[in-house]
Structures are given as C-alpha cells and as structure tokens.
Amino acid sequence: MFTMAKLKTGRHTSAIKAWRKSEKLASKNRGIKTRIHDSSKEFGALVAKKDMENAQKMLPKSYSLLDKAAKTGTIHWKAAARKKSRLAARVKSIAQNPS
C-alpha cells in the first residue's frame, strides 16, 4: 500500500485517496462475489446429488447473499434476479424428477 506522504505540491493527494478507497471496495466486492460463487457451487453439488431437502434449506441463504450483493451494488439487481431464478429452476427440476 502507498502511504499518504505529503507531496511537495499536494496535487495528487486526492487521487491517492481515491485509489486507496477503490482498492478497499474492490477487495470487499471480491469477497462477496467469492461467497456467492462458492454458495452456487455447493448448491449445484446438492442438486447433482438430488439432495432435495438440503437444497431447499440452502435456497434462502443463497437468495440472501444475492439480495445483499444487489442492494449494495456489488452485482446488478437484474443479475441477482436471474441467478435466483436459475437456482429456483434447478430445485424445481429435481422436484419433478426425483429418481
């Protein structure tokens, strides 16, 4: 990280602050997106095993992660809605074909 040293002219201090802020935000967003990705992978594994009970338990948790990410602007709200719809469709598919 770059420390906030006072430059001779003081011209670039705001740019340095903006860069530092963007790094923090990007790191936070990356963590949220990773949690969403891991959650959907875990959900996919449950669907592949046709574990209906655990998949339905995990659905609200996945919805919550997506809604929170959309609320803070980490992902677009329509992207969150699309992902939620696809999760629901996968649960529905194993409900129809439980074999």
CA(first)-CA(last) distance: 54 Å
Residue share in β-strands: under 5%
The gross shape turns out to be rod-shaped
CATH architecture: Up-down Bundle
Structural class by sheet pairing and helices: mainly alpha
Helix count from the secondary structure assignment: 3
CATH class: Mainly Alpha
Q: Would you tell me which CATH topology applies?
A: Methane Monooxygenase Hydroxylase, Chain G, domain 1
Q: Uncertain regions: pLDDT < 50 for 5+ in a row?
A: none
Considering the protein shown, what is the CATH homologous superfamily? Ribosomal protein S20
Could you tell me the number of beta strands?
0
Major β-sheet profile: none
**Helicity, as a percent range:** over 70%
CA radius of gyration is: 20 Å
On the 0 to 100 scale, the average pLDDT is 90
Q: What's the number of domains?
A: 1
Please write the string of helix (H) and strand (E) elements.
Answer: HHH
Helices and strands in order:
Blueprint: H1 13-48, H2 52-72, H3 77-96
Helix pairs in contact: 1-2, 1-3, 2-3
